[in-house]
Design brief:
By secondary structure, this protein is of the alpha/beta class. It has a single domain, classed as Rossmann fold, CATH 3.40.50. 18% of the residues lie in helices and 19% in strands. The chain contains four helices and nine strands; from the N terminus they run βββαββββαβαβα. Strands 1-2-9-8-3-4-6-5-7 form a nine-stranded mixed sheet, covered by helices on one side. α2 packs across α3.
Length: 216
């Protein structure tokens, strides 16, 4: 299958990652899959949110779980949600989002401003020197784009720092993982189901390695 985009660092394929398996040739999985929570959002002028019908294959965790089964026991970094079943994991990290995140849908007075990051597969033993809570500040505008659930490239860089080899991202989305890999001089293989996001990723990667700023 011909790539949708390719340069010296990153190769991106358009299709279903359960069928387009080029990403399985990589060494470490760094992915932001559908969480399995049937996410959608309506327009909220007060919170400056725009309506979005949802993410494909987000009705349950079966797509994520199939990909993890395909990946096997190699190291993986997998984003997820509190409200969905957890995958088998070695450890759970917490991402604390910026101060303007987590307002929409929260009615208790506490913002929904955290997401989970699962470390799956086999990881090398290390001295405990980093917090399991990763923080990003500065506001969502620093990293959000036409994909409603984009991640900050700087956050993805921090997660990649303790990994080696080629990075696999079978749910490329807006391309934060692939952009971060390129910024770090790492090779990466991505797959994205929706062509509109493939186009967005290709444009971001074609711009070269840009400094998106430290969102922490």
């Amino acid at each position: 299958m011909e790539p949708y985009y390719a340069d010296e660092s990153v190769t991106l394929y358009h299709g279903d990652c359960r069928e387009v398996d080029a990403w399985l040739a990589a060494d470490v999985l760094v992915t932001d899959p559908p969480y399995g929570i049937a996410w959608s959002i309506g327009t909220n002028k007060a919170a400056k949110s725009k309506a979005h019908a949802g993410i494909q294959n987000d009705q349950d965790t079966s797509c994520r779980d199939t990909v993890l089964e395909m990946w096997g026991d190699r190291p993986g970094i997998v984003f997820g949600a509190w409200a969905a079943p957890f995958p088998n994991n070695r450890q759970v990290l917490v991402w604390r989002k910026p101060v303007d995140a987590g307002v929409v849908g929260s009615v208790t007075g506490y913002r929904r401003d955290t997401e989970l990051i699962f470390l799956t597969g086999k990881w090398p033993q290390r001295t405990s020197s980093r917090s399991s809570v990763l923080e990003t500040n500065g506001g969502k505008a620093q990293y959000l784009n036409s994909h409603p659930l984009a991640k900050p490239p700087y956050l993805m860089q921090r997660l990649m720092e303790w990994t080696e080899g080629v990075i696999a991202e079978p749910f490329a989305g807006s391309g934060s993982t692939l952009v971060a890999a390129k910024q770090l001089g790492r090779k990466a293989i991505g797959v994205e189901l929706e062509e509109r996001y493939c186009e967005l990723v290709a444009k971001r990667l074609a711009q070269g390695v840009l400094d998106f700023g430290e969102a922490s």
